[in-house]
Every structure is written in structure tokens, then in C-alpha cells.
Design a protein that fits this description.
heterodimer, A: three-stranded mixed β-sheet, B: about 525 residues, mainly alpha, globular
Chain lengths: ~550, ~525
């Protein structure tokens, strides 16, 4: 374990991925504006070339440049993160200290989250290369489509959200975490409303912004109460204070408020109402980022608060104080999400509700961790690691099949909207490989082997069951911890979810294409590359997910 | 040279089918049609090769296995590879007297199904899907790792879903989804049961063989995991298998799936996929939870009886030929449950032989249905009147299929039913009246009604209305070959049942002894 005080070369090395994103951000701001502009020294007629404005240079005037820069930046950052994760020799756990306060901690746990964020944003950026602005209007001429300014705006927002997310991943202080969360959130608010010309876009954006700010405000209120209670927002200070004072009415209320803030991010019921509108209003790659990276960010916050600060030793049987609340939240979220998804005719709303259901599964796993210290579990730390690793694995592979599904809808959006189930009709005939990819994503979401979604669901259920059965000598199933019933609810919900995932398959292969959609699909190589990457990831991590599981376990260990 | 034939029989067809599907996926419809014949030939050759390998294995030419001496929980051709090390998941394959007949049956039915549906439309997609289905089915039967078993268990759903969806009848959309959702629901509950069991074990393992050893060790001196837990796990596991079997009241997906499925899909569904349920019962809950089986044997018997009677009665009311065959399958699967519940070596052997015999007879009936639909454009039994005069081949095959299905002596089904009756009499005494009467009455009724519809009425000059005045054709050569083959095997295993019965008998007797059931 090494620590850095202040800004030095070692710190640059440690924070390489974040600095890469930051530099990329600056480049996107600067490079597209380079031109032969001059600056006249006041009072004279001497004009000094200062490279900004004027007629832009040919090399930087390409409307695709910001996108390419963003893709390169994200790829480079992702590469560094993956390098860190795979490099066994690197010292795990480096602290960044500023002013005597531990600000960031770089370890496997934070890095694997960054890998999730960067992978999702990279795929979304690749997919967006061909298609801006997105949405229903088809008539826009190419000048509007490739308006350089808007291109730059879009990718700048993507990179700022990446930066915000990585701050959340690294933060060791609730306030720093909150700043990162807001940076990422505000970028996504604008990204959702980016297609402001369409009603759905502006409505979704506004709704998402309003509900999101209320949730943030509530969370911030909770933070201030925590500060009042502990005198600090450092994780370790909060944890010690929790151990000393235990759950007081003030701290519990504060915890509740903080939870609301994060529950909105992961779109847990009943804080999910903005999600379907936001997803259907946003263009598909952005919606995919919301459903994967943004959700992982919320989950990360929840894990930090629940698992680090509130060491679960408050109840008489050794389970966490929040276990009951979270269990109810999990049960309601997964059931509500699935039942609402059954009735949605808009594939993007359906995917949004399915993402609510997945939030429920993740909450169920978190609930199981709450039981990690109860009487029957013999090695509490191991049990917790297993569940945390399962969650990490789940969020990681979710990037492939959830984002992939949104990207397939993105291809359909390019030919005029994907807001009805019937837009998918006949995809099996129009472009078989795309339909196959979509079908793989759907059955992976439902949890059918041998897809990655099955392995992740299996790991989550295994984690829950392992905690619930404890030492393994039960005289009846009733003696298992009640989180076992959450596992049962989870498998029943998986079965319910099969209805709407299969319906996509049926529509793609069974129904005739709509009027005006009979020809070949809109071209776009980059989005297809992104979809292919997603499909490969979905299958590959399902068949041989062992290495990733190992990685997730190491990461889970470094959480404690 | 040590070749892992079993793994190859699982992986090769699946890889080959994926390759063939990708090969033709980017072509348009017209270009793909040109590939129909070569793809069909490729899948046919692969399936024939698999059949040859399975047969050579049976004859002892490969591996030199003495099939009559495989005791319970020992496996031949066993191979194991690490799959996902971090979770202790392995790729472990092996066969015993329980699974080998099913493997052989699958390899037999694949080429026959391909022959019977030689002219299926969109062959370039259809035949690879059949091949994938076959590979996945063999995967279920040879898997000795719980994870691997579950993966293939679910994998069978995907090709079948598409077979029904793309080549099925009018309501195929509904039927395909119902089929998928019913079996998926049951199997996720089964999965939770398997995982709970996994964590309750002393030494956690996914290996079924080790599981059985562990369970029997504990069962010998007490009840493994405790009776209450054993009962809950037994129910969760059985639920998955009962829906697949299917037994009443979980059978309603089957008639829909069958009626809508294409002929080839129906043949594989009835021939092998249903047996996955019975196979799973023997492999997991029965082998692991003998105490729970003892507790629930009466309930299982009642479920079997209800399936048998209900299937037979509903069968009587059908006017749709395919639905009738489907309900007769429900009835026969009830017989398997009766065999299990009899707790006699003979009864279990009867159940195993019923799985095998029904796996040959029901595909024949579905091949007949398919040919009937193909040539008469109807599924209504009324349209069959006088079929014997128009299409003697079809009529004879149909009559033969029904005779076999209803258990006429010297045909495969009879052996199983006779054995079952004896075992059932030992176990439940006068309860035998119910299955006995049902079997006898329905047999008589069907043969009488079939004889009346097929051979009487319908002047040669008056073909059925559904043909709209076209001349009545008889069945194609490919259909003829398939039916002849199936009929030949039905007779073969009716006259010489010991070919496979010996290994089944050995398995059941050693299983009974191993699990501590006395029998009679």
C-alpha cells in the first residue's frame, strides 16, 4: 500500500486513466476549434496567429473528429484500467491524500468499476460515431446531422460523465463521492435531453432532471445529517463512529435519505418513475449507458455506504440494520419492474423496466450481504466476498447484453424511431445477424444458459443461497435465513421476465416488417462493430467466465 | 488412442450447426435456397456418423464396454475437464445403463427425422437447428456435472423454440412461447433447488457422481440433509422434471406445442425431449433423495394415474389427429410415473423401457401425422375416412403406429406395459384396476375407431373435402423410408427387448440395492 501526498509523478502514474479522460476532454474542447484565426494586438494592426477560430484547418474540421477522439480516449483509459486489473505485480491499494484527508483510493474494487464505466461509455461512443443527432426526424440534411459543434458537445458530455463516474469509484469521502455523482448526473441529464427537438427527448430529459435533482437534494440532506452526527464524511471516520455509537435515530434517518439518492440512480422502485421516460426519450446508446454505467455507479454508492460505513452488527442476530428495508425494496423492485415490463409496447420502456427488475436482483444480493454476520454463517467475510463478486460480475456482463440490446434499437432508430415493438418486426429477415444478436441479448437478460446473463444470475443466486444456508445443517428450509425466499422470488421473476424477452424474439422472427421498413437497414459500420463486441462478450463470458470471476473476487476482497 | 466420443457427440453437432447457420445467414432467401440440399446432406452425414458411433459403442467395438454389468453410479467413457475452475464447474461426461439407451435413441431419431422431413422448407436453417437440438439433447444425457446438465437442459429450448416458431402451424407464436415459458419456469425453480442442495452438502460439488456417493453415505445412517429439507428439495427438483415430462396438471403446454410444431420438431420433442424429464428424475431426485421418494411415492403414483387416465380420456374427445397423439403421450408418461412409484426393480425397468419404446413409437405417429397433414392438408380425423383406399402406405403406417402405441404384443410398447402391470400389481394390488382398465378400454376403442375411419367409408372416387378435388397422393419415398425404419425398430425391440432391457435391468436392480429399497 502506497500513498501520495500532493501532486507528483507517481500520482500521475496512479491516476493514469482519469488523467487520460481529462486530457481527452481538453482535446475535444480545443482541437475542433483550431483554425487560422488571428489576434490583433490592440492599438496596432499587427495580427498574431493564435490558432483559434477563423477558418478551421481541414484536418480538424471533420465532423467525426470529436467522436474519434472520444473513442480513442475511452479506449486508452479502458486499456489502462484493464492493464491495472490484469497486472498481478502492481501494488494494490494506493491512497491519494490531499490536505491530510484521504480523498481517493485506487484498488481492484474501484478499478473494476471504472472498467465497467469505461467499457459502457466506449461502446456507446463507438456506436454513436455514425449517428448524431438521433431520433425520429429523418429529413435532416447531412449538414445538420454532422454539425461539428453538436458532435463536440455530445462527446464532451460523455467524457465528463466518465470523469464523474471514476471520481465516484475512487472516492473515499462521501462528499467527494457526491461531487463525482453530480458531475456524472448532470452530464447524463443533458445527454438524455440532447435530442431536444423531439418531444420525447425534452420530456424525458426534463423529467429525469427534476426527479434526479430531488433525489440528489434528499441525498445531500442525508449527507449533511451524517456530517452533523459524525463530524466528518470520511468513510473510515463514519465507519468508526457507526461502530461506536451504533444506529441512532439521527444516523438512521440520514442513512435513509442517502439511500434515496442512490436508489434513484439504480432506478429502484419506487424511485424509478423517471427511468422509462428518460430511456425512451434519450437516444439508444445514451439509454444504454444509463442502464449500465449509471446504474453501476448508484450500486457502487450503495455498496460503499451500506457495506463500509454501516458494519452490519446492529440486529440481535448479527444481521445489518437495513436488511429488512432493503429486502422489501428488492422484492418490490424486481416484481414491479417485471410486471410493468410485461405491459409495455415500447421496446425502450420495456428495457427500462427490465433494468428496474435487474436493480431488484442486485438489491436482493445486497440484502443477502446484510445477513452475512448472522448466526449460521461460519465465515462471514467469505460469504460477503462471494456476493460482492457476484454483483461485480453481474454489473460487468450487464454492459454487454443490456447496452447491446439498446444498440440494436439504435440501428432501428437510425431509420426513424424504435419506440414501438413493431419496429423490430421482420428483423430476422432484414438482417439475420442483427436479429440473432438481439435474441442473444434477450435470452441473456432472461438468464438462459450458456449466456453471460445466466452465469451472472447463477452467481447472484448462489451468493444469496450460500449466505442463507449458512453452515449447512438445517433441519428445514424454514431455518434458512429469509433471504432464501428472495432467491425464490428472483427465479420466479426470471420466469415472468421470459414473457417479454421472448416476445421480442417472436416479433423479430414472426411478424412482417412495417410499412417503410422493408428494405435493408440503415448502414453504419461502427454501431455494428459495437453490437458485435457486445454479442461476443455476452457469449464468451457465459462460456468461459472463470477469469472474470477471479478478478471480481479479488476486487471484492479489496473492498473490505 | 483415447478419443472422447461422448464430448464430440455433444460439441460437434452444435458447432457444425452454428457454422452452417452463420454460413448462410448473410444470403438472401433465393441464394439460401440453393444451400438447402447441401446443408441437408451435411447434417444427414453428421447425424448418421453419430448414429454409427453410438451403435459401435453399444456393440463394444469402441471401448469394449460390457453394458450388462454397469452398476449404479458407475459410468463408462467417463471424461472430465475443468470448465470454470473458480466455481468448481467441470465438463464431465459419461454414460450408464440409464443414459446410454437415451443417447442411442437420440442418434437414431436424428437421421430418421431428417429423412422423414427431407423436403422441409428453408432447409438451410431447419436442418442445422435439428442438429443443434440433437447435440444439446445428447449433452443433457451424458452430462455428469450439474452445471453442464442445466446448461444443456436449457439449450434444448432454443432450437426447439425456433423450430416451432418458424416452421409451425397457425398458432405457432403462442405455442412456442408457452412451451418455452412453461419449461423455463419449472427449470429455474429446479435450479434454485439444485443450488440450495449444493450449499447444504458437506463437500460442495457439482459432480453428480460424487453427489450420489455423498448422499448415499449419509442416507445409509440417517437422512441426508434431514427429511424436511430433503422433501422440499425433492419437490423443487421434481417440479422441473414433471413439467418437462409432462405430467398432469402441468401438461397443457404439450398439446399446444405438438399441434403447432413441425413434424420434425414433434418427432424430436415426443421422442427424446419428454424423456429428459423422466431421465432427470432418475438421475437426480431419485438417486439423491430416496427417503423423500418413499414419502411422496403415493403422490407420484396419483399424479401418474391422473396423467394416464386424463390423457386417455381427453384423447377420446379429440378430433385433431396430432392433438390426439399428444395426449396419448401424456398418458404414456403417466405410465412412467407409475413405474417409478411402484418402487419395484421391474417397475423402474418398465419405466426406463417405456421411455425407450415411446421414443420410437411416438415419432412414428408424429411422422404419420406430418405425412397426413402434408398430403391431405388437414389434421381432422374426419378427413381420414377411407384413407386406406387412397393412401395405403399412410394408412398402414398409421394403423401400425397406433397398434404399437396402444401396446399390442410383440411390439415395443407392450413389453413396457406388461412389465409395469406386474410391478404395479406387486406394489399396489387391486389399484391395478385403474390403469389396467384404462389401457385396455382405450386400446380397444382406438383400434376400433381407427379401423372404422381408416378402412371404411370414403369411396375411392370420393376423396376428402380438404383436398379441394385434387387427386389423393400417397406418401413420399422419404416418408416411407422413415416409417419403415421406425416400424422395424418397433418390432425389433418388441421381439427382442433384451437388447437394451438388460442394461436397464442391471441399472435398476443395482440402483434399488444402492438406495436401500428392497423391492419384491
Amino acid at each position: 500500500m502506497s500513498s501520495h501526498n500532493g501532486f507528483d509523478s507517481a500520482m500521475i502514474e496512479t491516476l493514469g486513466p482519469e488523467l487520460t479522460v481529462f486530457v481527452g476532454l481538453l482535446l475535444i474542447m480545443i482541437v475542433p476549434n483550431l483554425g487560422n484565426g488571428t489576434f490583433r494586438i490592440p492599438g496596432t494592426s499587427i495580427r498574431l496567429p493564435w490558432l483559434f477560430g477563423g477558418t478551421r484547418f481541414k484536418a480538424v474540421a471533420s465532423p467525426r473528429l470529436p467522436g474519434l477522439l472520444a473513442v480513442l480516449t475511452m479506449a486508452l483509459a479502458l486499456f489502462q484500467v484493464v492493464w491495472y486489473l490484469l497486472d498481478a505485480t502492481s501494488a494494490d491499494g494506493q491512497d491519494i491524500i490531499a490536505g491530510g484527508i484521504l480523498i481517493f483510493k485506487v484498488n481492484m474494487f474501484s478499478r473494476i468499476f471504472e472498467a465497467i464505466f469505461f467499457a459502457a461509455l466506449l461502446l456507446a461512443a463507438i456506436a454513436s460515431l455514425d449517428r448524431l443527432p438521433t431520433g425520429p426526424q429523418k429529413s435532416d440534411d447531412i449538414d445538420v446531422l454532422f454539425n461539428n459543434r453538436r458532435q463536440a458537445d455530445f462527446y464532451i458530455l460523455m467524457l465528463t460523465s466518465a470523469l464523474g463516474m471514476s471520481v465516484v469509484a475512487l472516492a473515499q469521502d462521501l462528499f467527494v463521492l457526491f461531487v463525482g455523482l453530480e458531475l456524472a448526473s448532470f452530464s447524463t441529464y443533458v445527454l438524455v435531453a440532447f435530442h431536444k427537438e423531439s418531444r420525447a427527448g425534452s420530456e424525458g430529459g426534463a423529467k429525469y432532471f427534476i426527479v434526479g435533482s430531488v433525489a440528489s437534494a434528499v441525498g445531500l440532506y442525508g449527507l449533511s445529517m451524517l456530517y452533523l452526527w459524525a463530524g466528518s464524511l470520511q468513510f473510515d471516520v463514519l465507519a468508526t463512529t457507526w461502530a461506536e455509537k451504533g444506529a441512532t435515530s439521527l444516523s438512521m434517518m440520514a442513512l435513509g435519505f442517502v439511500l434515496v439518492g442512490f436508489a434513484f440512480k439504480i432506478s429502484a422502485a419506487p424511485f424509478h418513475f423517471a427511468a422509462p421516460d428518460a430511456y425512451s426519450g434519450a437516444n439508444s446508446p445514451v439509454a444504454g449507458v444509463l442502464a449500465t454505467a449509471s446504474k453501476a455507479m448508484g450500486m457502487l454508492g450503495l455498496m460503499r455506504v451500506l457495506l463500509i460505513i454501516t458494519v452490519p452488527e446492529a440486529n440481535a442476530d448479527g444481521s445489518a440494520v437495513w436488511i429488512g428495508l432493503l429486502g422489501v425494496l428488492a422484492a418490490v423492485t424486481m416484481t414491479w419492474g417485471n410486471i410493468a415490463a410485461l405491459g409495455s409496447e415500447n421496446p425502450k420502456r420495456m428495457l427500462a423496466y427490465s433494468s428496474v427488475a435487474h436493480a431488484g436482483y442486485m438489491l436482493a444480493a445486497l440484502t443477502a450481504i446484510g445477513a452475512w454476520n448472522w448466526g449460521l454463517v461460519d465465515n462471514a467475510g467469505d460469504a460477503m466476498d462471494v456476493v460482492v463478486a457476484a454483483l461485480l460480475f453481474h454489473m460487468f456482463v450487464l454492459v454487454f447484453f443490456k447496452l447491446g440490446a439498446f444498440l440494436v434499437l439504435g440501428v432501428l432508430e437510425m431509420e426513424g424511431g424504435a419506440s414501438r415493438l413493431s419496429s423490430l418486426a421482420g428483423l430476422g429477415k432484414r438482417e439475420p445477424l442483427l436479429a440473432v444478436a438481439m435474441f442473444l441479448f434477450m435470452i441473456s437478460l432472461a438468464g438462459v444458459p450458456p449466456m453471460a446473463g445466466f452465469l451472472s444470475k447463477l452467481l447472484v443466486i448462489m451468493g444469496i443461497v450460500e449466505v442463507a444456508t449458512g453452515t449447512g445443517s438445517l433441519s428445514s428450509i424454514g431455518d434458512a435465513h429469509w433471504v432464501w425466499w428472495l432467491a425464490l422470488l428472483m427465479v420466479i421473476n426470471s420466469a415472468i421476465s421470459m414473457f417479454y424477452y421472448l416476445r421480442i424474439g417472436v416479433v423479430m422472427y414472426f411478424h412482417e416488417p412495417e410499412e417503410g421498413r422493408r428494405g435493408p437497414l440503415a448502414s453504419g459500420a461502427s454501431i455494428r462493430v459495437a453490437i458485435a463486441l457486445c454479442a461476443i462478450g455476452t457469449v464468451a463470458f457465459g462460456l468461459v467466465g472463470g477469469e472474470l470471476i477471479d478478478l471480481c473476487r479479488d476486487a471484492a476482497e479489496s473492498l473490505r | 488412442m483415447n478419443v472422447d466420443y461422448l464430448s464430440m457427440m455433444v460439441i460437434l453437432p452444435i458447432l457444425a450447426s452454428i457454422f452452417l447457420l452463420i454460413l448462410t445467414s448473410r444470403l438472401n432467401a433465393a441464394a439460401r435456397a440453393k444451400f438447402d440440399a447441401p446443408v441437408r446432406m451435411a447434417t444427414f452425414i453428421i447425424s448418421i456418423a453419430m448414429f454409427v458411433v453410438a451403435t459401435l459403442m453399444f456393440l463394444g467395438e469402441i471401448g469394449g464396454v460390457n453394458w450388462e454389468s454397469i452398476a449404479f453410479n458407475t459410468f463408462e467413457y467417463q471424461e472430465s475437464y475443468v470448465w470454470i475452475e473458480q466455481l468448481g464447474i467441470t465438463w464431465t461426461v459419461g454414460v450408464d445403463g440409464l443414459s446410454f439407451p437415451m443417447v442411442w435413441l437420440t442418434t437414431l431419431l436424428m437421421p430418421i427425422t431428417i429423412i422423414a422431413t427431407w423436403n422441409e422448407k428453408s432447409g438451410a436453417t431447419y436442418f442445422p437447428l435439428m442438429l443443434m437440438l440433437g447435440g444439446a439433447l445428447i449433452g443433457v444425457f451424458v452430462a455428469l456435472d450439474m452445471f453442464m446438465f442445466y446448461v444443456f437442459w436449457e439449450l434444448t429450448l432454443i432450437p426447439m423454440f425456433f423450430l416451432i416458431l418458424k416452421w409451425g402451424g397457425k398458432d405457432r407464436k403462442y405455442a412456442a412461447q408457452k412451451f418455452f415459458i412453461y419449461t423455463f419456469t419449472a427449470s429455474v425453480i429446479m435450479l434454485l433447488g439444485l443450488l440450495t442442495m449444493y450449499f447444504l452438502m458437506d463437500t460442495q460439488t457439482f459432480n453428480m457422481q460424487e453427489m450420489v456417493v455423498q448422499a448415499s453415505g449419509a442416507n445409509a445412517s440417517g437422512v441426508w440433509l434431514g427429511l424436511e429439507v430433503q422433501k422440499v428439495l425433492f419437490i423443487m427438483l421434481m417440479l422441473g422434471f414433471l413439467v418437462k415430462l409432462p405430467a398432469a396438471p402441468f401438461h397443457t403446454w404439450l398439446p399446444d406445442a405438438h399441434v403447432q410444431a413441425p413434424t420434425g420438431g414433434s418427432m424430436m420433442l415426443a421422442g427424446v425431449m419428454l424423456k429428459m424429464g423422466a431421465y432427470g428424475m432418475f438421475r437426480l431426485p431419485i438417486s439423491l433423495f430416496p427417503h423423500a421418494l418413499e414419502e411422496f411415492r403415493f403422490i407420484i403414483m396419483m399424479i401418474g394415474l391422473v396423467s394416464l387416465v386424463w390423457g386417455a380420456i381427453v384423447c377420446l374427445g379429440q378430433t385433431n389427429l396430432k392433438k390426439m397423439v399428444a395426449y396419448s403421450s401424456v398418458s404414456h408418461m403417466g405410465v412412467i410415473l407409475l413405474g417409478i412409484a411402484s418402487m419395484q426393480p421391474l417397475g423402474w425397468a418398465a419405466a426406463l423401457f417405456m421411455m425407450f419404446a415411446h421414443g420410437i413409437i411416438s415419432p412414428m405417429l408424429f411422422a404419420v401425422c406430418g405425412a397426413f397433414k402434408h398430403h391431405y392438408h388437414s389434421m381432422e380425423i374426419g378427413a381420414m375416412r377411407g384413407m386406406a383406399k387412397h393412401s395405403p402406405w399412410l394408412a398402414t403406417s398409421m394403423m401400425f403406429g397406433w397398434m404399437a402405441s396402444l401396446g399390442l404384443p410383440l411390439l415395443a410398447g407392450f413389453v413396457a406395459e406388461l412389465m409395469l402391470m406386474v410391478a404395479y400389481w406387486y406394489a399396489y394390488g387391486w389399484w391395478i384396476i385403474f390403469p389396467g382398465l384404462v389401457l385396455a378400454i382405450t386400446a380397444a376403442y382406438y383400434l376400433w375407431s381407427m379401423q372404422r375411419t381408416i378402412f371404411e367409408g370414403g369411396e375411392a372416387t370420393q376423396p376428402p373435402e380438404s383436398l379441394h378435388g385434387e387427386p389423393v397422393p400417397d406418401i413420399d419415398n422419404s416418408e416411407k423410408i422413415a416409417m419403415l425404419l421406425l416400424a422395424a425398430f418397433t418390432i425389433l425391440f418388441g421381439v427382442m427387448p433384451w437388447i437394451f432391457l438388460d442394461m436397464m435391468d442391471m441399472w435398476t436392480r443395482s440402483a434399488m440395492a444402492f438406495l436401500g429399497f428392497g423391492g419384491a
